Request: fold
Amino acid sequence: MQQLLSSLGQVTSVIGAQWGDEGKGKLVDILSEHYDIIARACGGANAGHTIVVNGKKHIFHLLPSGCLHEGKTVVLGAGMVIHLPTLLEEIETLKNAGVEIISRMWIAGNAHLLLDVHKEIDGLLEERRTSVKGEGIGTTKRGIGPAYMDKAERVGLRLETLLLSEDAIKSELESHAQRIEKMYGIQMDTATELANLKAAKDMLESRISEDAASHLAVNIESGKSVLIEGAQGVLLDIDYGTYPYVTSSSTTIMGALQGLGLAPQRLNSCIGIAKAYCTRVGSGTFATEATGDAQERLRERGGEYGATTGRPRRCGWLYLPDLIRGALINGFTNWNITKLDVLDEEEVIPVGVGVDAEGNVQYEELPGWQKPTVGITEFADLPPEAQQYIKFIEEKTNVPASFIGTGPEREQMIAQS
Ligand code: IMP
Reply:
């Protein structure tokens, strides 16, 4: 493990290679103790990861999975859209469990505020899309698209708004409300939004960094190590994903660097995370989606229900061209293949390897192992067919599977140099 960790270097990132929910949180949790700074770069409360605090499960949406580790600095980057009541709730949950986080976090002043009204607009836009196209994107309804729309339109409110006087914040909100009413006919509840911002101002004002990007660079130059926790996955990227069924941010490593204001040459490694199979929530293409029993088996064995929305996830098989492309565009240096054990009972495992001239997926069938792999921590202890499965991914993508998940617990992981 030590050799593997030193090969990752001072600044590393963890990026989902599929449609999110690859299980990034577990690797981040394992790696966090070895890094000084844990940073989230993009997205908002559409992400969801389960954190166990004092034996009790909590689902967090904004704070990175690594936040529980005492003494680690937590950064929320400029690429994020932050719903302050959700953030305060997460901070409170940690506080109640005896974990203090405020004094060791910083938030980019140029990150955007996501207001309650953005969620309302998200719902309205989904309805409109459904009535025009017969189907929406299947968003998480967390207001992500509308908050990024404000940002792109250059009318969004940013975290630095909290540094203004209460009167100035009120007047910013009032002009925002007028705009929203004109555009969508929605009455924004300015009093509630103001109360939310005031509560956040009281707690977080001192944690807002006016130049988080320089602050991060200075920290790196002084020797601090950084773990970047990506949100969602490559196939949900607004530019490189399965548009238009994507989220509104850049989920690749390029987006993460932009979201933190981090120069590319500072990055030492980029770990791609992919499930040993594949899942998707929401609408859109999914070439290797399983049918019948297999769909149900994967969902039940993998516990495939959305952490943010509770929706059952669509389940299917790996599609190698997506992993190859993800590795190419992100420059993955390592894989973490997660949830290998979910495939333990499969007799044969289809893997999508391409499409024919008519656009039908071509599969290669690999033999299943039909033996438990749960909790195995050494590659050599995996059944030969499971080893073959992993090697197949490594060979086709040209990226080593340095981490292989064999169960939900922290210890259930193979780590190999
Ligand atoms: P939005 O990000 O809420 O606008 O949703 C856009 C698409 O991204 C929908 O298909 C969502 O289900 C999907 N999505 C957004 N965040 C996540 C995530 O963290 N995991 C999995 N899917 C996500």
Notes: The pocket of inosinic acid is lined by residues 19-21, 46-48, 137-140, 142, 144-145, 232, 236, 245, 247-248, 281-282 (CB under 6 Å). The radius of gyration is 21 Å. Residues 280 and 286 are 8 Å apart (CA to CA). The chain has a mean pLDDT of 95.
